[in-house]
Amino acid sequence: MHQDQPAQQPGTPAPDAPPPVPGIAEDTALELLVHGVGGSTPAEMLDDPCTVRVSGDQTAAVHRRAQDADAEQRPEDYRGKPVPEAYVWSNLTSGNGTRALWLLLLPFMVVNLAHWMRPSTTGRRTAVRLYGLLARLVALSLTVLLTAAACEVALDLVAWQCAGTASCSGERAWLGFLATDAQGSGGWWSQPGRRLALAALVPGALTALLWYLSHRTWRSYEAQQPLPAVDRAEQEAEENAPHAALGRPGFWYGRRLGARLRAAHTSAGLLTVGAAVGGPAAEHDRLPGGPALLSTVGSALQAALLVNAVAVVWVVSRRGRAESRLDEHLDRLVRVLPLTALALTLLSLGYAAWSRPGWQSAGRLPGDETFGTLVLAQGVLVVALAATARRLHATTPERRTVLKGLGGPAVAMLACALGGVMSGGVAQRVADWLDNGSTPGAPGGPIPGPPVLLSWQASVLPPLLVILLAVLVWYAVRTHRHARREEAQVAADYPGEPLDATRTAKIASARAMAALTDRAPVVVGVVSSVTLLLGAGALLGAWTTGRVPGEAARELPAVVSGAAATAQALGSWLIGFGFLLFVTWGRRAYRDPAARRTIGILWDVGTFWPRAAHPFAPPCYAERSVPDLTWRIASWTRETGGRVVLSGHSQGSVLAAAAAWQLRPSARRRVALLTYGSPLERLYGRWFPAHFGPVALTTLHGEVDCWRNLWRHTDPIGGPVRVGTEGRPEVDRPPLADPLAHGRTAAHPLPAPILGHSDYQADPAFAEERARLLARLEEPAAALPKQLNAAEGQPAQGSAGRSSG
Question: What is the mean pLDDT of the chain?
Answer without folding.
Answer: 83
